[in-house]
Amino acid sequence: MMIKRNTIQRSLVLEAVNKLKCHATADEVYQMVAQEHPTISKGTVYRNLHQLAESGEIRKIEVPGSADRFDHRCHDHYHVRCTKCGKVFDVNMDYIADLEKKIRDTHGFEFTGHDLVFRGLCPDCRKESSSI
């Protein structure tokens, strides 16, 4: 059994995700940490992000066609991604806990959960396109 240490780098990465509160990409987290700790490597930040997600301290959001995002909110909830700027936002709706039970053909999978990402235009991009 491998023991995961709570390193200073891990704390810095977790603190950055909590401060950003914006479903940050790994690059955005790296840039924030590197501002105060320029000697930290991208690999260290990426590795710690994945370890934090595996331990449940942050949530990794896999966004098809885009970089993974990291969320400081760990409870089950849904997201919307702007199709123009790519930003990801929380969606305020009830989580559908038994959604997997509605799948007709499981193809042999045993489901352990789901992520749902809606698509749309954020208010800033809608404003921008209506002023053109």
Q: In a nutshell, what does this entry contain?
A:
The chain is built from four helices and six strands. By secondary structure, the protein is an alpha+beta fold. The longest helix has 13 residues, at 8-20.
What would you say this structure looks like, in words?
The chain is α+β, with helices and mostly antiparallel strands. The chain folds into two domains: 1-74, Arc Repressor Mutant, subunit A; 76-132, Ferric-uptake regulator, C-terminal dimerisarion domain (Dna Ligase, domain 1). It is built from four helices and six strands; from the N terminus they run αβααβββββα. The chain has helices at residues 8-20, 26-36, 42-54, 123-130; strands spanning 24-25, 59-61, 69-71, 78-82, 88-91, 117-120. The strands form two sheets. A three-stranded antiparallel beta sheet has the order 1-3-2. Strands 5-4-6 form a three-stranded mixed beta sheet, with no helix packed on it. Strand 2 and strand 3 (69-71) form a beta hairpin. The radius of gyration is 17 Å and the shape is flat.
